[in-house]
């Protein structure tokens, strides 16, 4: 059995690509924000705050800043009265859409009793429409 360090060395890697990805998207609420942007088409701070259960304004501010620094989202200030901020998903962020879909499909297939009131499996398209 090959150890991780030997595997990384064999392929000239500095770190595990899965570990690196989890450092970017594995923080609490990051995937929720991406879900809301990609699947629910949300782009405002208050939309996220109202629809992500358990997130505080401080945590949301921190996550949005981190996601912007990672290149997953863009932040734009809209010069209205009052001044507003809108967020948009970047190409880098959009590449995570299949990950969100797989996570949803996993629970809809293997945990339907927890996910659905009727306890029956449903397809991604049945729930989210034809997003693919």
Strand and helix map with partners:
Layout: H1 4-10, H2 17-25, H3 30-38, H4 45-51, H5 57-69, E1 73-78, E2 84-89, H6 91-94, H7 97-110, H8 112-115, H9 124-128
Antiparallel strand pairs: 1-2
Q: How would you briefly describe this protein structure?
A:
The protein is mainly alpha-helical. The chain has 9 helices and 2 strands; from the N terminus they run αααααββαααα.
Distance between the termini: 38 Å
Which structural class do the helices and strands define? mainly alpha
Strand line-up across the major sheet: 1-2
> Globular, elongated, flat, extended or rod-shaped: what is the shape?
flat
What fraction strand?
5-15%
Overall mean pLDDT stands at 93
> Largest sheet at a glance?
2 strands, antiparallel
Low-confidence stretches: none
Kindly state the percentage of residues in helix: 40-55%
| SS elements, strand count | 2
Number of helices: 9
The helix-strand sequence is: HHHHHEEHHHH
Query: Measured on Cα atoms, how large is the radius of gyration?
Result: 18 Å
């Amino acid at each position: 059995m090959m150890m991780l360090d030997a595997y990384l060395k064999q392929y000239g890697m500095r770190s595990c690509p899965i570990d690196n990805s989890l450092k970017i998207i594995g923080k609490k609420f990051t995937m929720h924000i991406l879900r809301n942007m990609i699947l629910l088409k949300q782009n405002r701070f208050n939309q996220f705050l109202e629809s992500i259960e358990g997130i505080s304004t401080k945590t949301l501010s921190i996550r949005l800043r981190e996601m912007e620094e990672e290149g997953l989202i863009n932040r734009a200030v809209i010069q209205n009265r009052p001044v507003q901020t809108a967020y948009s998903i970047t190409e880098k962020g959009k590449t995570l859409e299949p990950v969100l879909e797989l996570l949803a499909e996993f629970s809809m297939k293997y945990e339907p009793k927890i996910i659905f009131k009727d306890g029956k499996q449903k397809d991604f398209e049945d729930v989210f429409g034809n997003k693919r």
